[in-house]
Amino acid sequence: SDHMENIYGYLMKYTNLVTGWQYRFFVLNNDAGLLEYFVNEQSRHMKPRGTLQLAGAVISPSDEDSHTFTVNAASGEQYKLRATDAKERQHWVSRLQICTQHHTEAIGKNNPPLKSRSFSLASQGSANSPGVQRRPSQTAVSFFNVGHHRLPTGKRVPIMQPDHLVDVREMMSQAEGQQRDLIRSIECLPASGHLTSLDQDLLMLKATSMATMNCLNDCFHILQLQHASQQKGSLPAGTTISWLEPKISLANHFKNGAAQNFPAEINKPASVREEQSIAEPCQLTREPEEINPDEELEDICDDKEDDLGAVEEQRSVILHLLSQLKLGMDLTRVVLPTFILEKRSLLEMYADFMSHPDLFVAITNGGTAEERMIRFVEYYLTSFHEGRKGAIAKKPYNPIIGETFHCSWRMPKSDVATDAASSSSAHSLSEQVTLSEDPEGQAEPDHYTVKFVAEQVSHHPPVSGFYAECVERKMCVNAHVWTKSKFLGMSIGVTMVGEGVLHLLEHGEEYTFSLPCAYARSILTVPWVELGGKVNINCAKTGYSASINFHTKPFYGGKLHRVTGEVKQNMTNTVVCRVQGEWNSVLEFTYSNGETKYVDLTKLSVTRKRVRPLEKQGPFESRRLWQHVTESLRDGDIDKATEHKRVLEERQRNEERLRAETETPWCTKYFLKDGDGWVYHKPLWKTVSAAQTQQTDSN
């Protein structure tokens, strides 16, 4: 092939935290299937500093930026490399992938398959009979006979021809049946006694057997691609064979130990067929839509996530998932089982953080810069409790790129705390705004309205933008968040990368803030949520800042959900307020004058958000987009929810593939790229500035 050329050049290679990135001269040796590197070009004739075998390797462009990529060898060794620009990265990645594919296929053609091995239950009667119990001296491992089918001596296994794939499929079907029998036998064991269904060795056997079957299915898929390439002559240039998602659906494969059949196409519900009818890449308008708050109705949905039954029933699925993960592994692209999902999108979860809009609006009513910062800290710390739906740790839906969520809140003006010192001036300014925006002199409403919009602006990496504003009080908040999930052993950590900015336009102040990390603990028993990390809130104009620590529970002793913080004046380094307590219970604020204030979060009034009915929502608005998944979860039908979710995710992959083939960039609807962040397309600070300019010109 013309693409099988030896290429060379300088790339940056990441060494370690101390040394960091270093320039090295890399050579791709296509004939040998090697990636070699040297200190510099002049040392090419010497022994290379490092060499990677590319057969069986995985070449992955990084989500960090457009320059970085990784080469993961089959041996487990990894090179993290960085090109000078996106074009050069694509050049290296495509050549490496072609070379990798060529040498991987060569190994598959020139080597016979490995000797097969199978696991069979000991002939001790039916698994349901009471006789299937071990003696006290019998171990969990010895309960099962592990047999190797040996081939007759002197006979060599013939190289498998493409027409033998039918036999392979039949053998794999038998293996899947044996694996199901194995799982049933384990789960039918008594809950107590010498040998139980919760024996750690048996749990590990269940997890690894499921992982093995998924791996075999992936290998079979690669064999099918090789068969297709042999029939067509060769694969087109640039084609790569990649590992797929598990062929055995995690949530579908077992439901409390019972084997589940995959639904036939003809038996799919009408809602799935409806989703599939729009599963083809669709050209929907990306023009921003102005949502009329009067069309929104008070939300009557109340999906609490307190059901623990599903987690106990799906223990084997969780163990299977854990068997595929490694410490520190990025979970962004890992497909999680459906039963652990909340009944809402991540975009709606961000909206639920604003369930106390009265505290949000009250920030700008603070009479001094100090009081406004303290009010913001109070609002910030009260937002996380209502953002969680129950004590159990469940995961919101991963938003699909282009997905949006709209809502609003209304609250009587009398419910919003004011400040006597600033009420007259604020009222005067409010009158000016009302007169300039309402020349017909209509009666001023007796309530404040806070409008919210969120959009999934990127898929890889997964970035969400959200914006909220209260026009009457001339305040708004704009934020973007990149959720990075990592596997930490018996817990999962989620880092919220990004920044938010609160704008108080009446005072000309901007408050920048970050978000804490979240952790799902005890994922093998009853998972629960914990927040951790340090966040900072700063206002450059006033010189006030806040430092807040979310404390994770120590291994021994200590309290859950503890938070501490302080507000200080940076110029004088004076602490004006301290806060301590639990972010989901009671917070104690101690002020510089000695006064103390307690806030019981469990007794704070929650303002229900207002959302348009489903029939008035667009096809990419969260609740309409995920409605069939949500309905199935409410009904407890995990299989149907999984199928609906799969259709939505497959549509996203198809559209992403089409954009890549046509080199069509994704166009966002409500948010615009601004440096490393995302900004709402029509923020309040721009409209207010334009209105003030127009008023000045008219005067």
From TrEMBL:
Oligomer and partners: Heterodimer with OSBPL9.
This protein's record includes keyword Signal: no
Segments of skewed composition (Polar residues): 117-136
GO MF annotations, alphabetized: sterol binding
Major site of localization recorded for this protein: membrane
Source species: Gymnorhina tibicen
Family annotation (Pfam families): Oxysterol_BP, PH
Protein name (Swiss-Prot/TrEMBL): Oxysterol-binding protein
Keywords noted in UniProt: Acetylation, Endosome, Golgi apparatus, Lipid transport, Lipid-binding, Membrane, Transport
Gene Ontology cellular-component annotations: cytosol; endosome; Golgi apparatus; membrane
Family: Belongs to the OSBP family.
Annotated stretches, region: Disordered: 104-136
Biological-process GO terms, alphabetical: lipid transport
Function text: Plays a role in regulating ADIPOQ and FABP4 levels in differentiating adipocytes and is also involved in regulation of adipocyte triglyceride storage. Weakly binds 25-hydroxycholesterol. Interacts with OSBPL9 to function as lipid transfer proteins.
Boundaries of every PH domain copy: 4-101
Cell location: Endomembrane system; Endosome; Golgi apparatus
SUPFAM superfamilies: Oxysterol-binding protein-like, PH domain-like
